[in-house]
Amino acid sequence: MSQFMFLFVLFIIKPEVYKFDFSKSLLDEHFTVILALFVIAVLSVVFSFVLKNFLINKAVQQQNVRLVQTALIVACSLAEIASLLGFVLAISFAYPYFFIFFIFGIGVIILHFPLRKNFIDASYKTTMNNQL
Known about the structure:
The chain has a domain at 44-113. It is 74% helix and 0% strand. It contains six helices and no strands. Helix 1 (2-13) packs parallel to helix 3 and helix 2 runs antiparallel to helix 3 (65-93). It is elongated.
């Protein structure tokens, strides 16, 4: 997963954020930026679920399996925004709780794991009348 690549790059660029100084509060002197980025992360995750469900329903209606794949790619990309925002907070502000954004992003991507049911429902179905 790309989130682990972000964590590795963060370790190379700014290893001092891995010292985990929890003496700071969750919302430190940059509370407006942190709160704004958290809201953006939550909205992107909610939008990822809404868009995924919309595209999967469209795939089932059109009997198009490729739309299921598109839905999963788009949903995972939107869920990855949470991890990217944690990366930005760690680089820009040395925010010690950046890992919460990463856990949130990774958890949502796991929730978007493809289900066989979605592919079966979207696959082309023939009726008995068409086979005769």
